[in-house]
Amino acid sequence: MNWDREKIAAYYELSKPRLSAMAVIMVGLGYVLARRVLNEGFDWPRFFATALGTSLVGIGSAALNQWIEVARDAAMDRTKSRPLPSGRLERKSVLYFGYAASLGGVLLLLLFVNPVTAVLAAFTLFFYLAVYTPAKPLSSLATLIGAIPGAIPPLMGWTAGYGMIAWQGLFLFGILFLWQIPHFLAIAWMYKDDYALGDFAVLPVEDPEGSSTFQQAALYSLALLVISVLPTLRGMAGTLYFGGALFFGGMMLQKVWQLSRERSRARARGLFLVSILYLPAISILLVLDQIY
Fold first, then answer.
1. Which of 32, 95, 217, 232 could cross-link 182 (Cys pair, CB 3.0–4.6 Å)?
2. Chain centroid offset of residue 236 CA
3. How far apart are CA 172 and CA 279, in angstroms?
């Protein structure tokens, strides 16, 4: 029984549940906004199918990514205790688990949601594993490449609720795409030595002084601030969201500026924590603006 618990715990860790939970939250945001635009009721069965399908695709991609990168994970202090490099799970079992979850998620979306959302899920899976993962040791541009599949969950929520891609869904995609860059650069600055050991070509490894790193963080944070207010300017949201987007976007820029002035792990963690706060904060404000 103890062995069973350990195995279940290892698969749970392999699945990266926090990332899956964040994806479901963003799917929910897109779905709620789509139903409000259509002025139709909340279709709970379709939403649950969307959330479950998205979770399975996320779990599958996480497992397959770790299967591919097991050697690099073993070289890094922050990842060497993961289920595969630590030997708690076998490679063949992880491969089958990843295939089953990924295929199950795409089929669930195809059968119980709609083909557009299923295609977006399949594209996300393919792009993450076949394009982003091989690019990670080659160039720091992989961060931008990886932000593309990372930004698709709210668009999937939108298409699940609306039936097709529309500009509102693309706004959500754009916000999440831009948010990922300063968020990841903060992580990469904190763990740049570890990423170097794992042979990952992240920007702080290529730019040890940080000049380009912080310029990029500032550029994308500013772009995020600009695009985040567009929903109000296009009538998708009101003043409550507008004020919140300006406030939290300003906080991101402030933390980037502080990090550029004091290039420390503590300042990078400050940016990371504010970025973690940013996403749920503006998501809640966007939904509240639709309700009230």
1. 217
2. 23
3. 11
pTM above 0.85, yes or no: yes
What would the two tokens of residue 144 be? 């931008």
CATH topology of domain 1-165: Tetracycline Repressor; domain 2 (1.10.357)
Read off the pLDDT of residues 151-201 as tens digits, 9 standing for 90 and up: 999 999 999 999 999 999 999 999 999 999 999 999 999 998 888 888 888
Domain spans of the chain?
1-165, 168-292
202-228 burial, b at 16+ Cβ within 10 Å, e below that, comes to bbbbebeebeebbebbbebbbbbbebb
- Find, among 48, 236, 60, the residue nearest to 157 by Cα: 48
SS (H, E, C) 200-259: CCCHHHHCCCCHHHHHHHHHHHHHHHHHHCHHHHCCCCCHHHHHHHHHHHHHHHHHHHHH
Question: For position 3, what pLDDT does the model report?
Answer: 57
Per the CB < 8 A criterion, the answer to whether 249 and 221 are in contact is: yes
Under 8 Å between Cβ of 189 and 268: yes
**Helix or strand (DSSP H, E) at 5:** helix 2-14
Tens-digit pLDDT profile for residues 88-135: 999 999 999 999 999 999 999 999 999 999 999 999 999 999 999 999
Cα–Cα separations (whole angstroms), residue 247 to 223, 234, 240, 257? 14, 19, 11, 15
Axis-axis angle for helices 167-190, 211-228 (nearest 10): 150
* Residue 51 φ/ψ, nearest 5 degrees: -65, -45
